[in-house]
Design brief:
3-stranded antiparallel sheet, 556 residues, 28 helices
Length: 556
Amino acid sequence: MAGNKKEGAAPPSSITTADDKSKDIKKEAPQLPPVEAAARRLERLYGGGTTSKTTATALPINTTKIMKKWLGASSGTAGNATMASVAACAEKTLDPAGVCVTGREILMGLCSEEDRLAVAVTKEDDVTADKPEEGGDAMMEEDAPSSTTPEYLSLTCREVESWLMTLAVRIYWRAGKYQQAYDLIIKGLQLLDAHLVDSGNNTSTAGGLYPLLARMLRYRSLIMESLLTSSNDDDTYAKLCSDTRIELASRHTHAVLRRDADVSATILNLHLRELLLSDRVEQAQKLISNSTFPTDAASNNQLLRYLYYSGRVQALRLEYTQSYSNLSQCLRKCPTNTGLGFRIAVQRLLVVVQLLMGEIPDRSVFFGEGMRGELRPYLEIAQAVRRGDLAVFHETVGGHAERLRMDGTYTLISRLAHSVVKAGLRRLKTSYSRISLEDVASRLGLPSATSAEFVVAKAVRDGVIDATIDHEGGYVQSHDLVDVYATVEPSEAFHRRIAYCLTTHNDAVRAMRYTPDAYKKQLEASRGLRRSREEKTDEEKAQEIEDELDDEDYEY
């Protein structure tokens, strides 16, 4: 039929709709560099800026929560930032006539104008690397502004300025320029404190600055340690610590008063770290006992640091059980996809604490992903402790002494000599019913038979082994293993269990016979108080119902 459509004819051309045009325009829109895109995204999260879907709104109340969420989402951008991108972002986002003019000049002076202009417009893949997953905040979906004209930030200029300062300090620190990083972080802290004073320390308006304050304080502490390592000048580090210790104490007090969990937790961990580096274990213990860590409100990273530092302090103070508990909890809470260095440090200390408790760690602990080479010295030490050979133990520790000092575990491992001797004595008792003191000294690596006699006597007194020392014969006689079922111990244990069951039965009967609140009813009756509705008789309840019905009929 002539009117029918011919086979093989070309399909009609697609109709271009307004939505398709908007998508094409959006695709052709120039993409911003990652650092600037992250800064403008924070402006939109605060309710500022104008996009196709959002309009300017009032400042949100919980700015601290928004800032912490944004810092986590922008971690990839911060890790790949360069000094030129940081300076270019400061030039395009910070108003030269606003409150951040000083910070803008400092950041722009970190690199030349040619480097700032050479910051190329990134591809779409680079910009979308920091975008949230599907279902995230709608305001975080668009990174490009509606026009190519740069607009200065109004609501988040102070936060972006402080954030850019931390990025620049991080770049200097990673490049090994510790003095420049220290000078810059001091200027950043001064600017941030000035912003807090201008806002009156109001949490509703300056709440987003407190997480950045905590980050700056942590960077300053790390830079000070790097300055000590590079200069090897203990006096300079002691002077820096004395100057900042009073300041941190004052900041911690103000943070606790305004219920700022981020700053208070960070400062507490910085105090503990500084005290451990200076070997002030008792002062660190006093700080832990006299302070309260905000476990519920602090971030997971700060909680992990606190558990590690407290576990280390307790291990140095011979409190191995509490140390093992804190370190085990810290290792369980550690993320498995990042922080390998921290997990290795926790695992090293946990292995040492287990050995000090008389336990041998599982072999699989030393062969975890990324830990095989780092835990190799500790595997050899654990094997020496398990064998109970003191000579092999001292040889192993001497071979890895420098490495153990770098790890900070040499002092704790030096205490394992007693555990090695105890393990060796247990093996000898199991193998020999009688052994001379000279053989004990030779097998355990002790200097003489007299030293072996003292060691065996202490082990017998501590209950490590059940034996008798023959001083005249110069040997140790082990006691035969006694059949426990031939003694009265099983009957005593059975008696204790029966007594517990009888006590539980008697308590249950007594609770049913004498209800817990029986005396309250008698007390109310003696005082002439009105009885409740449940205690009234059936006649009284029926009379009340009739009175209520009469009242309803009267109203009708």
